[in-house]
Amino acid sequence: MVDALDTQTKALAVLNDDLRRRIFLFVRRQDHSVSREEIARELGISRKLAAFHLDKLSDNELLDHHFARPEGRSGPGAGRPAKRYRPSGRVIEISVPQRRYELAGRLLLQGIQAQTQDSARDEAHRAAMLEGRRLGAQARRDKGLRPPGPERTLSIAEEVLGECGFEPLRTSPDELILRNCPFQALARLDPDVICNMNLQLIKGLLEGLRSTSAQACLQQDPDHCCVRLRTRTRG
Fold first, then answer.
1. Which of 80, 93, 143, 155 is the most exposed place for a label (fewest CB within 10 A)?
2. Any residues with CB less than 8 A from the CB of 152 and at least 6 apart, and which?
3. Within 13 Å, how many C-alpha atoms sit on residue 33's CB side?
4. What is this structure's pTM?
5. DSSP state of 50
6. Number of Cα atoms under 13 Å in the Cβ half of residue 126
7. Residue 210 to residue 220: CA distance in whole angstroms
8. Strand locations in 39-185, DSSP E?
9. Is beta strand 82-87 parallel, antiparallel or unpaired with respect to 63-68?
10. Residue 172 CB partners (closer than 8 Å, separation 6+)
11. Quick check: 176 and 234 in contact, CB under 8 A?
């Protein structure tokens, strides 16, 4: 426990620097790996300073890095591959005394798996749907909304799901993906239960918003949550 706490607090200390934290959050919001030059332009700093902070984040496993040429450039004259950075899979979480909610989740999931019928699984998905409706209705009341159109629906979903830990990412005007699954450890044990729980939560959110202009669907992706939101105007 002490070793784990020490490791986590060191990672948090790395993020204590305001500029480094802004760099870290910027990288997490992108749908592609970023270069030092991109960071320097975005934050108005020198390439050298951007490199220093990016490498600090990478050294502490908060970012991953690889080498690649700029998109669209290959062959002779394209230059040497440059260092590029992307979010790592590391999770930072500290509680003192230690709380083992993941353990409780695993035990509850084992209880669901042990059921010979689908009743427990169905009830878990039903509970997720009800919670999604509650979140959507709350957001609608807070913002004084009528049923929102497609753009507004995705914007509100982005805000609400971000607060739930999904790290939403707009890849296009009509699609929202979820970079992170807050229940990733459990999803590895039983993706059918957890992925469909996520799906029902987000379907419920859309119902709570009274939105008919967007839909949630499953699309397996090892790097993101399996649920995506798309506007219904999509072809």
1. 80
2. 145
3. 19
4. 0.72
5. H
6. 6
7. 26
8. 63-68, 82-87, 168-172, 175-178
9. antiparallel
10. none
11. no
Handedness of CA 124, 127, 131, 132 (dihedral sign): positive
Mean pLDDT per block of 10 residues along the chain (235 residues) reads 68 89 91 91 94 93 86 59 87 68 79 75 89 94 87 93 90 90 86 91 96 92 86 65
Burial of 63 (0-12, 13-18, 19+ CB in 10 A): buried
Please tell me the distance from the alpha carbon of residue 32 to that of residue 18, in angstroms, as a whole number.
23
Confidence (pLDDT) at 146:
85
The token pair at 177 is: 């993906």
- Residue 75 confidence (pLDDT): 54
CA–CA separation, 131 vs 125, rounded Å? 10
79, 73 Cβ separation under 8 angstroms: yes
Torsion sign across C-alpha atoms 127, 128, 132, 133: negative
Which one-letter amino acid corresponds to residue 185? A
Contact of 213 with 150, CB cutoff 8 Å: yes
Q: Which residue has the tokens 């990412």?
A: 169
